[in-house]
Amino acid sequence: MASIIPQRHLNGLEAYLVLDKPLYKPGSEAKAHVLLENKGVERSFRLRIIDEKGGVQVDKNISIKAGERLVDISPVSTLEDTGFHKLRLYLDSTLIDEVGYITGDPASRRYMRVAFVWHNHQAPNYGPDGRFHADWAFTYVHKDLLKPYGLGPYHYHTTLLDNHPGYSATFNLSPSLLYQWDAALKKGVDFKDGRRLDKGSREVQLIGETLEKYAEYARSGRIDVLTSVYAHTILGFLTDTLNAQDIVAEEVEYGAKVTREVLGGFEPIGFWTPEMAFSMKLVRILQENRLEYTILDDANHFYYAEGERSTPYEPYILLDPGTRSHIQVFFRDSYLSNVMSFQNNFTSELHAWRNAYEFAYMISSKWVDKNTRILTIALDGENWMAFSKNPPLTAYFVDKLILYLEALSDFNFIKTINLRDALEEIPARRVITNIPTNTWLGTFRKWRGEVVEQERWWVQAAEAIRLLRVYENVIQGRDSYSNSARFALWHALDSDYWWAEFWSPGVINMWLERALKTIQDRLSNIRIVDVKVRGDVYLGGECELGVSIENNLDRDVKVNIAIESWGVKETTGVIRSVSLKARTVSDVPFKVRAVSTGDTPVSVLLLSDNSVVASYTKNIYISQRLPPNPR
């Protein structure tokens, strides 16, 4: 999808019709802007603007030179009846463009709030050695990607705030993005390809200025800044498929900590759910971290929610009946958000301007329904610009869009708002009690299924989580090694590395190997060194097995011991739990009864959390026991 409105050309003349705003009081005067660029020879033509009732609003002759760009402005009268209307632009006898506008009385309702939520995020693009393998966290600040209108998208968002004092918005600055900015400011950045960004460089200086702008606007209340998990993980999948609520909960806590520290003590209350991969299991986690709201999708969350559901254009209390935990949820308009995300391939300034008007008109159309308390438009803050075929024109487009929204604000039709303020201005009145696990895409297949190889790595991730649980159960808690493994897991599970089109098994493997090796090395220090048989072993008789277990860790551990054999059975029939002191070899005796004869393998298993930590197999010979003499 290229753009909302396609290019309009007539014999080398690019032409569009826009108005000074898309929403008016009935019968008021509007300013019609005819946008013209002549890519052919000098020419003259008759320009007419005709309303839907056939009334001629503008009729004039225009001359335009070769290569000239012209904006012709004429007054037009809006119609007296309220509703949706059309104006048509004719050049000579050819209909070249048709534009919509809306009439209504701003006094008929409270102004409609429009909340833009810009999701600025980068995966933690460095390895365990601290060197970076990608530079987007930095180039999307300092590189002139949007030239001549601005630098990178992260910087340009602050430019928009500078240039539009009445504009308010909500930003997710993902904790892993903030960490990378903070690292650049403190020590510079080393890349795996040998490049370096020195902390005193102009590039890093721009990063510092950009970060301070966000912090300053957050402190002033112009914007709200969300927090999130440290990396960009698909949380609903982790909680529901991998049963990793504890990993998610800790990463949420850590992400909020990074947000507070890097933004100079700013206390976040909003949470960005990466990929909108939501599960009800997150409600308690968010509330326990003093996070009050998140943003989900109307198409894939709201319309499947259970409870007092009315319209997606108001906030809701989301109550988990099982835990009695609750947060508030704003639902984004999926259609409008995706239009802005993906229909942004503009070909000229005039084309971008025309599309900005059309998008402002689409926003304004929501004003007509008085039940629309807040319109939430949420999308990536950087990718919609960087991935456009013409990134600079996205900057021109959004600047024009904000100008239109400011014009509507001047007449009390619409007001941009950040979601922290929205919680105060429009408190939630309805309660929903369930939102099915889903993502903004309506599926998890983008991260598990579209690429065949993804499954193999999810199995590896599940294995790393299993071993982590085993180790923490063995040591009866946490230590620096399990913390290190968890940190590595956060990086490996970042959804940007699993996204089908950006599938990055090398990065995933680098961090999974780190997590697995950390735990495997620790668990290898617990082993069975010998199994000794004490006494003769006869069928039906009992003997003692002495199991020697070495714990070479620097802390006490707890394991369960089981005897597995078809030839002998442990007399109690109960798996024994034992504590092993640090740096010791312990002898653990077992009474067993022989139940068969011959050469018999006996396996001794050290277990934790229903998993085998270590094993040892010894063959023993069980003799027959002859009956006594007849007399």
Question: What is the topological layout?
Answer:
Layout: E1 9-10, E2 13-19, E3 23-24, E4 29-38, E5 43-51, E6 56-64, E7 69-77, E8 83-91, E9 94-103, E10 112-120, H1 136-142, H2 153-163, E11 169-173, H3 175-187, E12 189-190, E13 196-197, H4 202-220, E14 223-226, H5 235-240, H6 245-262, E15 270-271, H7 281-288, E16 293-297, E17 306-307, E18 316-320, E19 325-332, H8 334-342, H9 349-364, E20 374-380, H10 383-386, H11 391-410, E21 414-416, H12 419-425, E22 431-434, H13 454-474, H14 480-492, H15 495-498, H16 505-523, E23 526-534, E24 542-551, E25 557-564, E26 568-570, E27 576-580, E28 584-594, E29 598-608, E30 611-622
Parallel strand pairs: 3-9, 10-11, 10-20, 10-21, 11-14, 15-16, 16-19, 18-22
Antiparallel strand pairs: 1-2, 2-4, 4-7, 5-6, 5-8, 8-9, 12-13, 17-22, 18-19, 23-24, 24-28, 25-27, 25-29, 26-28, 29-30
